[in-house]
From TrEMBL:
<dbReference type="InterPro" id="IPR036761">
    <property type="entry name" value="TTHA0802/YceI-like_sf"/>
</dbReference>
<dbReference type="Pfam" id="PF04264">
    <property type="entry name" value="YceI"/>
</dbReference>
<dbReference type="InterPro" id="IPR007372">
    <property type="entry name" value="Lipid/polyisoprenoid-bd_YceI"/>
</dbReference>
<feature type="domain" description="Lipid/polyisoprenoid-binding YceI-like">
    <location>
        <begin position="23"/>
        <end position="152"/>
    </location>
</feature>
<protein>
    <recommendedName>
        <fullName>Lipid/polyisoprenoid-binding YceI-like domain-containing protein</fullName>
    </recommendedName>
</protein>
């Protein structure tokens, strides 16, 4: 099985919420060196995301997000595919996410939607020893739960 993912339309989206509202931070500035991500038994992608390239749609929120992830000290978030297996119409991958020198492995189910490889996984700030921030003297509390969405444009 060989699967190719092209550079355009790639994104990683992190959805979270507070006790007041929801937030969404997206990084769509990354691409493979060759222009195409390849998924074969011998070659699985390593995706390096620059934390400062996440955009939360609001300058203050984007700055807070980058500060939470300590982007000055840890500028990259690395998503490494450990394995990738076809299961019926979908794919199952073991994905290692490395953030702030903490690594965590997740089983992620991917499906093909409109020529894109889409994967979704619930993760937690606490998986990476990050304490969810509080704002305005604790009146606004960020919840520990995050929804991570991967989208890689594919050519199968």
């Amino acid at each position: 099985m060989t699967l190719f993912a092209q550079a355009q339309e790639n994104f990683v989206q992190i959805n979270g919420s507070t006790n007041v509202n929801k937030f969404q931070c997206v990084n769509n500035k990354f691409k493979a060196e060759t222009g195409v991500y390849t998924f074969t038994e011998r070659s699985l992608p390593n995706i390096i995301l620059k934390v400062n390239e996440f955009d939360c749609g609001n300058k203050m929120m984007t700055k807070d997000f980058q500060k939470i992830l300590n982007s000055d000290k840890y500028p990259n978030m690395i998503i490494k595919f450990i394995n990738f297996t076809k299961v019926q119409k979908n794919y199952i991958a073991v994905v290692e996410v490395k953030m702030m020198n903490q690594s965590k492995r997740y089983n992620v189910e991917f499906e093909i939607e409109n020529n894109k490889l889409i994967g979704r996984k619930n993760v937690k700030f606490s998986d990476f020893n990050i304490t969810p921030p509080k704002k305005m003297g604790g009146m606004i509390v960020v919840k520990d739960d995050l929804d991570l969405t991967f989208s890689l444009a594919t050519k199968i």
